[in-house]
Specification:
The structure holds two protein chains of two kinds.
Chain A (H helix, E strand, L loop, with lengths): L10 H6 L1 E3 L6 E3 H32 L8 H34 L8 H23 L17 H30 L9 H32 L7 H35 L6 H14 L16 H8 L1 H27 L8 H4 L6 H24 L13 H30 L6 H27 L22 H34 L34 H26 L6
Antiparallel strand pairs in A: 1-2
Helix pairs in contact in A: 2-3, 2-4, 2-15, 3-4, 3-5, 3-6, 3-7, 4-5, 5-6, 6-7, 6-8, 7-10, 7-12, 7-13, 8-10, 9-10, 10-12, 10-16, 12-13, 12-14, 12-16, 13-14, 13-15, 14-15
Chain B lengths: L17 H27 L7 E4 L2 H15 E4 L6 E4 L5 E7 L2 E3 L1 E5 L4 E7 L4 E6 L3 E5 L3 E7 L5 E7 L11 E7 L6
Parallel strand pairs in B: 3-6, 4-7, 6-12
Antiparallel strand pairs in B: 1-10, 2-3, 4-5, 7-10, 8-9, 8-11, 11-12
The chains are: A mainly alpha, B alpha+beta.
Chain lengths: 576, 184
């Protein structure tokens, strides 16, 4: 498979850096492996912190519990956003980038020292921003909208973290060059790597936007700059804030393909279409800063319509393509295995016991139905009037970033543990339940926040009973029910998240070492029955009735929900 | 599989399966429908955000709101001391956001159209009119003029839904909508 570079001097020394994975047959560079481990461990630490803080937030918004006081609540909410939305996902994405370049391409990692320097910068930045928040003078929320000001350390921590992430992207690109140069693979890069490239390019755009706005804001917090325009800040900040979520989308879609490929040997239905869909992400996702500025004064309607729709929904088209291609690839692989009865035998007899697969499939379904549909509705220019800054917004992004990205990353961890950490998973039964607990918990929080948002409940709000306000207002009782249900499902999600941390940490520390013959718990599903997978890409062999049913249900739900919201909008007070 | 290079080196020439082509087409057309929907609403819909916006010095805006209150004040909201301004139908209404209040309380008539001037004196705030559920972002230094027509009578609240510091959850304002000719 892999053509080893020939004619280079240090070949023997290079070869010593590699081992061959018994499951996938991939050559694994020792330096890449250690860096993947370091970044994954850091990621899990920040997930544990961020997740715990998230539980405290949900228990405070559950008005009957109302756990924290106002100061602590706003502090904890800021820290929850930074740790869960930024630190956890970006650390994990760096691990994914190193995996998708060095490991998937059979290559050595470029400049491991630089990669370590980047890692140290990211860790130092993470600690600085957390310290700034926890000492109490930077409760400005993740978005830190000016003219509200955090301490300089808050901005400095974010800048250091971003520089570290940029270094990691450069190491990734360098590794691609080395792999191409040393001919460690034949032909084009695999689809997973292609997706990771899309993620890394969006990451560079994201970090550039972050630098453009955070460096002046840092100087402003030190007193060297007098004024930061609040509208400009928001526009550029969301060039970072929203685009960084698009890194997540590109990365977790790559992870879907990865898991389907490793566990089931699933092949993309069409390499061409899959890659074009990633290209749509690259070209159209970065303009989505508009999603946060639809009810902002001072921007033209034309600008809003074009940008919020990613130029006629072309990035949404990308996701809808993946939304069919991934289950389609799984169905094709399962049918080739012999599960050909009826419409859904392939799905019923999928490896649901394997947490990598169940987590990945839940991520796919929840991302589409909850995060995807709500995101498009939220991002329709006029519909946003009914949703801006209500709980609908966190409802949406808990569907994308938590049920989508976080769950996909958790799922792929169950491959990383035996294959990269080379440890047998301890507590396999807990691991089996983990994606379900977390997935159902997060689906609940997403759904009930969407519901509360539809009723107008404000996000980032300590007390919607307004008990100590001069004037009062009563939200409908249903809103309080929604927040209570959100709290209950947040507990469920927190249990699922805690199980993930426990299983991961225990496996890394105490798991039995995987022998040379590979892990004992099966990573991949049983090999295909007699007939091999047909040549993909040829129209004749594809028969995917189950996938058609799934995507038809999705589209019908999408269309109905979309127009229901326009109906709601038409009942609002006329305004122009 | 997706972690291996494409089986066929010239993968870009392979035909796309018909099933996938159909889905891509349907998804693309749905995107076009959603795109057109926003434009149609600008032409036909009655809920579009105004783009009438001015740069304004917060102090200047404050003095304008104070002059407006001076002129149209008809009383105070309960025992709170917050002035209530009754705006002549079709006229200009002013409301400012500051840490942590919406000021003043407005009295409007149902079915009449008003030009509502909104701005902030300090940080960003969120004008969330409840239970109508209309949400507009308010910036300092920017005056946003929105033409609005209340369609129902009653007491409406303006919740601040942009985080603005530790008193954020106490920031709440009020708009009273009365039947035509039944003010006060």
């Amino acid at each position: 498979m892999a053509a080893v570079a020939t004619g280079t001097g240090g070949l023997a020394a290079l070869a010593a850096r590699f081992r061959t994975c018994p499951v996938t047959g991939l050559r694994v560079d020792a330096a890449a492996e250690t860096l993947i481990k370091a970044n994954a461990v850091a990621a899990v630490v920040f997930l544990a912190i961020g997740g715990f803080l998230g539980l405290l937030v949900a228990l405070t918004r559950w008005q009957a519990v109302h756990l924290l006081g106002p100061d602590t609540f706003y502090l904890v909410l800021t820290a929850h956003g930074v740790n869960a939305l930024l630190l956890w996902v970006i650390f994990f994405e760096v691990a994914v980038l190193y995996f998708a370049s060095a490991v998937v391409l059979n290559s050595r990692l470029a400049a491991p020292q630089a990669a370590w320097a980047g890692f140290v910068l990211m860790v130092v930045g993470s600690l600085a921003v957390n310290w700034a928040i926890l000492r109490g003078d930077s409760s400005v929320m993740f978005t830190s909208y000016v003219p509200m000001q955090a301490s300089p350390l808050f901005y400095l921590g974010l800048i250091l973290f971003a520089v570290g992430a940029l270094v990691a992207c450069c190491v990734f690109f360098g590794t691609l060059v080395i792999a191409k140069d040393e001919k460690t693979y034949e032909g084009s890069v695999p689809l997973v790597t292609f997706g990771a490239i899309a993620a890394a390019i969006i990451a560079v755009f994201t970090i550039a936007s972050g630098a453009i706005i955070l460096i002046p804001t840092f100087l402003w917090s030190l007193g060297y700059i007098r004024h930061i325009d609040s509208l400009m800040y928001k526009l550029v900040w969301w060039g970072m804030g929203h685009s960084s979520q698009q890194i997540n989308v590109a990365a977790h879609v790559a992870v879907w393909y990865l898991i389907a490929g490793v566990v089931l040997g699933a092949k993309p239905i069409s390499e061409k279409v899959g890659r074009i869909a990633f290209l749509f992400y690259l070209l159209f996702l970065p303009i989505a800063a508009a999603h946060h500025m639809l009810v902002e004064p001072g921007l033209s309607a034309e600008w809003k319509v074009f940008n919020t729709s990613y130029a006629m929904y072309l990035a949404v088209l990308g996701s809808m393509i993946h939304g069919m291609a991934v289950p389609g690839a799984i169905e094709a692989a399962q049918r080739a295995r012999g599960y050909t009865n009826g419409v859904f035998e392939w799905l019923r007899k999928a490896p649901w016991d394997n947490p990598a697969f169940s987590g990945m499939f839940l991520s796919l379904v929840l991302f589409g139905f909850l995060g995807g549909i709500s995101g498009v509705v939220l991002g329709a220019e006029q519909l946003n009037i009914m949703m801006h800054n209500t709980l609908y917004v966190p409802g949406h992004f808990h569907g994308t970033v938590v049920a989508g990205t976080t769950l996909a990353f958790m799922a792929v961890t169950y491959l990383v543990l035996p294959l990269i950490f080379r440890r047998e998973i301890v507590f396999p039964t807990l691991a089996k339940w983990q994606p379900w607990l977390f997935g159902i918990g997060v689906a609940g929080t997403s759904l009930f926040m969407l519901g509360a948002g539809t009723l107008g409940v404000s996000r980032r709000h300590w007390d919607i009973t307004f008990s100590d306000a001069v004037l009062g207002f009563d939200y409908p009782p249903t809103a309080f029910l929604m927040l209570a249900l959100n709290g209950i499902f947040a507990i469920l999600a927190a249990i699922g998240g805690a199980l993930y941390v426990i299983v991961t940490v225990a496996t890394v520390l105490f798991g039995k070492r995987v022998g040379p013959e590979g892990p004992t718990t099966p990573v991949t599903a049983a090999p295909a029955a007699a007939k091999a997978v047909g040549q993909y890409g040829s129209a004749g062999t594809l028969h995917l009735p189950g996938t058609y049913v799934l995507i038809t249900v999705f589209l019908v739900a999408f269309v109905l929900y979309y127009f229901v919201n326009w109906r709601y909008l038409s009942e609002l007070w006329p305004m122009s | 599989m997706a972690v291996r290079p494409p089986e066929s080196r010239v993968w870009w020439n392979e035909p796309v399966p018909r099933a996938e082509l159909v889905w891509v087409t349907v998804a693309f057309l749905w995107g076009v429908v959603m795109f057109v929907m926003m434009i149609v609403w600008h032409l036909q819909g009655r809920q579009n955000l105004s783009t009438e916006v001015y740069r304004v010095d917060p102090e200047v805006f404050r003095s304008r709101v104070e002059a407006f209150v001076e002129r149209y004040k008809v009383g105070e909201e309960g025992t709170t001391g917050i002035p209530v301004a009754r705006v002549p139908p079709g006229g200009d209404a002013y409301m400012l956001g500051r840490l942590w209040e919406w000021w003043p309380v407005l009295e409007l008539e149902k079915g009449k159209t008003y030009r509502l001037h909104l701005s902030s004196l300090d940080w960003q705030h969120g004008f969330s009119l409840q239970p109508v559920n209309m949400n507009i972002q308010i910036h300092p230094g920017i005056e946003h003029v929105i033409t609005i027509t209340p369609t129902e009578a009653g007491v409406f609240s303006v919740v601040c839904n942009e985080f603005c510091g530790v008193g954020h959850h106490q920031m709440i304002g009020r708009i009273r909508v009365v039947e035509p000719g039944k003010g006060g």
